[in-house]
Specification:
This protein is of the alpha/beta class. About 50% of the residues are buried. Helix 2 links the parallel strand 2 and strand 3. It starts with 8 loop residues before the first strand and ends in a 9-residue tail after the last helix. The chain is globular and about 55 Å long. The protein folds into 2 domains: about 200 residues, Rossmann fold (3-Layer(aba) Sandwich), CATH 3.40.50.720; about 100 residues, Alpha-Beta Complex (UDP-galactose 4-epimerase, domain 1). The strands form 4 sheets. A 6-stranded parallel sheet has the order 3-2-1-4-5-7, sandwiched between helices.
Length: about 325
């Protein structure tokens, strides 16, 4: 397989939680004008809006993507656009349309333009209750119970299909819950792990929508960005997997997360009122075996729970004192 050089990147879903920060990191590495941001919403920050090209597209409509690909001579697509788990359960057909039809549009466009690479992230939502939950293997049973999970399994299989049938270099990694101080939760089951920090700083209390003992794999955004870019530039000759790498960083319960915050903010109080998202969380892994990513492209996270909590509270606390913390739900 001939390896093509990455020169011009298009990011779908660039206004989302991960996409907004990933786009800026890609622009820093590959040059601002060489990374084209796209999405259906206005960019959330001036940094994203003003640092390089941005276009409104509907990823499920080929013509809107095709126009930007041709205009900027795109050779790599990082496909971040997706409807997440909780929102997907409220509107399964929209989830299918965006996550499946959008992915097919991206893959076909990349194939026809003979692109260098396509990155299509997956998720721990690809797993289900039949999957071993402790140190979930990279290669295991995939029988999710959510539409989001179904679309992620299909995306992994499509990526591998296009690699084997057409020689298109498709790569993907299964994100755990992602925690960031830059963007608000976007409709996922692990949103509590983001919201809890914002509410701890603002109100010194939080009502969590999963049980105290709910344990899930998580990752701090700097590690998420690093993992995505590391896989993007990895030597393909060393990859045995392609669209389905487990990536881990830390695993903790909702109660352990609250306790880590309480060490920094002693007056913080967390209560627990599980809702429909609890049933989703109960089908997901408690921890991941990411040895394939570590062996095949050198994955290694930098943050654990205590380091992440300190950094999150330092940043959000400073913003709160400056009057810049966004109110959740506002």
């Amino acid at each position: 397989m001939k390896v093509k050089e990455i020169k011009r990147i298009l990011v779908t879903g660039s206004v989302g939680q991960i996409g907004s920060e990933l786009t800026l990191a890609l622009r820093e590495r590959f040059g601002a004008e060489n990374v084209v941001a796209t999405g259906r919403k206005t960019p959330p920050s001036d940094a994203l809006k003003n640092s390089g090209p941005f276009y409104f597209i509907d990823v499920a409509k080929r013509e809107t993507l095709e126009e930007v690909v041709r205009k900027h001579n795109i050779d790599t697509i990082v496909h971040m656009a997706a409807i997440l788990s909780a929102v997907g359960e409220q509107n399964p057909m929209r989830c299918w349309d965006v996550n499946i039809n959008g992915t097919l549009v991206v893959l076909e466009c990349a194939r026809e333009h003979d692109m260098a690479r396509v990155i299509i992230p997956s998720s721990i939502a690809a797993f289900g209750p039949e999957t071993p939950r402790d140190r979930t293997p990279n290669d295991t049973i995939l029988k999710p119970r959510t539409m989001y999970g179904v679309t992620k399994v299909a995306g992994e299989l499509l990526g591998d299909y296009y690699f084997r049938k057409y020689g298109l270099d498709v790569r993907g990694l299964r994100y755990p819950g992602i925690i960031s101080h830059e963007t608000l939760p976007g409709g996922g089951t692990t949103d509590f792990a983001v919201a809890i920090y914002f509410e701890a700083v603002r109100n010194k209390r939080y009502t969590c929508f999963v049980r105290e003992d709910t344990r899930l794999p998580m990752m701090y955004m700097p590690d998420c960005i690093k993992a995505t870019i590391d896989l993007t530039v990895a030597d393909i000759s060393k990859l045995k997997h392609h669209s389905d790498f487990n990536v881990g960083a830390m695993s903790f319960s909702a109660g352990e997360l609250a306790a880590s915050i309480k060490k920094q903010i002693p007056e913080f109080v967390c209560t627990y009122e599980p809702d429909f998202r609890q049933a989703i969380a109960d089908t997901w892994p408690m921890s991941l075996d990411d040895s394939a990513a570590r062996e095949e492209w050198g994955w290694k996270p930098a943050f654990d729970l205590e380091a992440m909590t300190k950094d999150m509270l330092d940043v959000l606390g400073r913003r709160y004192r400056e009057g810049k913390v966004v109110v959740l739900g506002a």
